[in-house]
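Hello, quick one for you while I still have it in my head. I'm working through a protein record and want to make sense of it properly. Would you mind checking whether the tokens look sensible for this chain? I owe you a coffee for this, so here goes:
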Amino acid sequence: MYLNFLTKIKNARAAGRKTLRTGYGRMELAIAEELCQAGFLDKIELKGKPLKKELEIFLKGKRPIRGFKFFSKPSVKNYCGYRKLPSIKSGYGLLILSTSKGIKNGEMAKKEKVGGQLLFGVW
């Protein structure tokens, strides 16, 4: 689940690690790619055999991850249209949501005019 994935990233950065290896999942890969494009992560590599893939994440990005705000959890799912997407830290943060076109950040969702399930905000 993406909640554990993000907690691993946050803890690894707090511990001063430069890399993190974690289990592979399509959602985790898509989230890591969005964070990498925004500058929170340096790069991502797939390691391992086809049935035992792992993500190796290089954590030294341009922007440090200071915190998360989770909008959807396993017990509560929040959905929002593209016109009502919330702002994270007055525009300094990044909103990640799951749309019908895949995992998108808030800016791309507004450009493509798609809404979806709000996952989390990061700053």
Observations:
- The mean pLDDT is 93.
- Helices lie at 2-14, 26-38, 106-112.
- The radius of gyration is 14 Å.
- The longest strand covers residues 116-122.
